[in-house]
Amino acid sequence: MTTVAAEPEARRRPVAGVGRVIGWPGGSLWIGRSIGLVQDHAHHAIQISLAMEGNFRVQADAWADWRETRGMVVMPDCRHRFDGCGTAIATLFVEPHSTRGAALRARFSGFEVALLSDVEALDAVKHLHAQYLAVTPDDLMAQFAQGAVCRLAGNPAMAPSQDARITAALAWMRARLERPIRLEEVAATVHLSPGRFRHLFVSQTGTSLRAWLLWARMEQAVAFAFQGRSWTEAAHEAGFADAAHLTRTCRRVFGLAPSMLVPEDQTGRK
């Protein structure tokens, strides 16, 4: 993986994680070694974190003390704190509106943060871990990552059906994240009135259009940076005003600055 060009402020920031970031429609994989503490934060995507070795710690609003685990599933918009304890971790983010996201929400209904048993966490991550050690290309890694999500979600075909108009709107927006997007123009592409589209979008995705766009742009910017662009270039190509805007958003979404994420050298593990 190409090393991201360093921004001046990156030299002064601690490193929270070293690894790879791989995205696909409806999700992404962040895999590598978690080094630092991720402070209190919440995000719209469902988060699945699976230790590939050892354990990590998590604290949520539902309990006062830190808890140690090999695997967890965090529901959308639930505040939590995360300490990777320096171990190798695969973290997957899943859009709640997707088929797999709906299946995860159904299975873990009633939980804000669900802690997995060691057996289930290991079963979900073992194939992904083997491919990571083999330095498997991104496209195949994405397939194994989605397989891990399916194992935890159960049978995605049993999840509630999704409206084809919202699926089409999401695809249309993902192809245009670098420019401003207005609700009215998205609604027009799927032949709905703005009011009807707004209502349907919230009912299907569980969030507002503005919040979804912020998440999608953040995810795309991180993917661009890990493909070799500087954080400034990644910010502009994902529709942020500048790198500072990207940094503020990343802190709000993931609890850390983007410069705290370091791509690994695929010629050798860091």
From TrEMBL:
<feature type="domain" description="HTH araC/xylS-type">
    <location>
        <begin position="167"/>
        <end position="264"/>
    </location>
</feature>
<keyword id="KW-0238">DNA-binding</keyword>
<protein>
    <submittedName>
        <fullName>Helix-turn-helix transcriptional regulator</fullName>
    </submittedName>
</protein>
<keyword id="KW-0804">Transcription</keyword>
<dbReference type="InterPro" id="IPR018060">
    <property type="entry name" value="HTH_AraC"/>
</dbReference>
<dbReference type="InterPro" id="IPR009057">
    <property type="entry name" value="Homeodomain-like_sf"/>
</dbReference>
<keyword id="KW-0805">Transcription regulation</keyword>
<dbReference type="Pfam" id="PF12833">
    <property type="entry name" value="HTH_18"/>
</dbReference>
<dbReference type="InterPro" id="IPR050204">
    <property type="entry name" value="AraC_XylS_family_regulators"/>
</dbReference>
